[in-house]
Specification:
The protein is of the alpha/beta class. The protein contains five helices and five strands; from the N terminus they run βαβαβαβαβα. Helices cover 39% and strands 17% of the residues.
């Protein structure tokens, strides 16, 4: 089954495209998803990831916190980076949501890469 190193989830198309481009240029394998519901389907299909980067507030059944909870059930220990443009949301983690770092929006690609490198110190190694 195919695998990807990073699952990047954001409902804003421009942000999703910018992130995927920056991460791929840095050598990472990235699987984009437009919302938490799509991301969960990918996880349930058995794709293996080394990192989940997810927006917090998204349309659909799953917000970023709920997605992170489900992702950690399927991939225990999966690191999480939360992104959000809502500073109050960034400071209040949903009950039961896994701990993770927060990358406030708007962010620059260099800031995203710095966060990813800090979570995946081995760099862009494939699984």
């Amino acid at each position: 089954m195919p695998s990807a190193a990073i699952l990047f989830v954001d409902d804003e198309r421009d942000i999703l495209e910018m992130a995927v481009t920056a991460l791929r240029e840095a050598g990472y394998t990235v699987q984009p998803a437009a919302n938490g519901d799509i991301a969960l389907v990918l996880l349930e299909q058995g794709l293996k990831f080394r990192l989940l980067v997810t927006d917090v507030v998204m349309p659909g059944v799953l917000d970023g916190f709920a997605l992170a909870r489900r992702a950690r059930e399927l991939l225990p220990g999966l690191p999480v980076i939360y992104t959000t443009g809502f500073s109050r949301v960034a400071s209040i983690r949903s009950p039961g949501a896994p701990h993770g770092t927060t990358l406030p929006k708007p962010w620059r690609p260099s800031e995203l890469l710095r966060q990813v490198h800090s979570v995946l110190p081995g760099g862009a190694e494939k699984i």
